């Protein structure tokens, strides 16, 4: 007990050595004991839907192939738009975007993810399972929000990872877990209000987004927009 108390006293009372960051930090960039980075960033969470049912309906080997395929799509699309991967949580991945274009880059990555899922992954799965008279359709949602974030290093020496503290990562994660709502991308007004015209409106003049209005996302009240559009990477 004394050992735990000493460690906790150290964590609770050591002053932060916090610095403003202009790049997305890696784990080694943040000191274990007292390091912290402040960053203005856009967070994108990409979450595969129904993975529990997938694992129940199919053998683990096939379910693993589907999950790995989805995560690879998400990672490649996020990186292609300048995002940085900083966390995996089962069938969900988190990307961080910074810079003046960060909100638009994140939205474009999300539109690309849905395109690859629809045009590549699902047809491949369909062709594979039809031979066995089986079927599975991959569905997913990306949640995106923007804001000030305090990034620290959690865990223990040689076994630690970065932890993002702030409303943006929390809200983005919860938006990605929305089920039963049309569309595959959900964003907040903090994203929508900064989108370029080509990320708001299609070439035919149709709006790409449906305003959902104010809703409670955890302890936060936010205005959200959802989209079912997709775009070629």
TrEMBL record:
Organism domain of life: Bacteria
UniProt GO MF annotations: cyclase activity; phosphorus-oxygen lyase activity
InterPro entries: Adenylyl/Guanylyl_Cyclase_3/4 (IPR050697), Nucleotide_cyclase (IPR029787)
Protein name (Swiss-Prot/TrEMBL): Adenylate/guanylate cyclase domain-containing protein
């Amino acid at each position: 007990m004394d050992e735990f108390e000493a460690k906790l006293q150290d964590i609770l009372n050591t002053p932060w050595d916090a610095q403003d960051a202009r790049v997305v930090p890696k784990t080694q960039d943040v000191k274990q004991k007292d390091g912290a980075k402040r960053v203005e960033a856009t967070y994108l969470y990409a979450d595969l839907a129904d993975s529990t049912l997938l694992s129940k309906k199919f053998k683990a080997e096939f379910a693993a192939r589907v999950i790995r395929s989805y995560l690879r799509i998400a990672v490649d699309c996020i990186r292609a738009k300048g995002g940085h991967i900083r966390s995996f949580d089962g069938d969900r991945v988190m990307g961080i975007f910074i810079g003046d274009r960060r909100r638009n880059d994140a939205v474009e990555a999300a539109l690309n993810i849905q395109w690859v899922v629809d045009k590549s992954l699902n047809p491949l799965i369909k062709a594979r399972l039809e031979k066995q008279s089986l079927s599975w359709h991959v569905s997913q949602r990306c949640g995106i929000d923007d804001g000030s974030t305090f990034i620290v290093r959690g865990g223990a020496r040689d076994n630690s990872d970065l932890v993002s503290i702030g409303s943006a990562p929390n809200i983005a994660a919860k938006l990605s877990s929305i089920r039963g709502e049309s569309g595959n991308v959900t964003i907040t007004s903090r994203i929508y209000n900064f989108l370029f015209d080509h990320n708001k409106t299609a070439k035919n003049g149709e709006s790409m987004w449906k305003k959902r209005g104010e809703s409670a996302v955890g302890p936060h009240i936010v205005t959200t927009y959802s989209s079912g559009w997709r775009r070629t990477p």
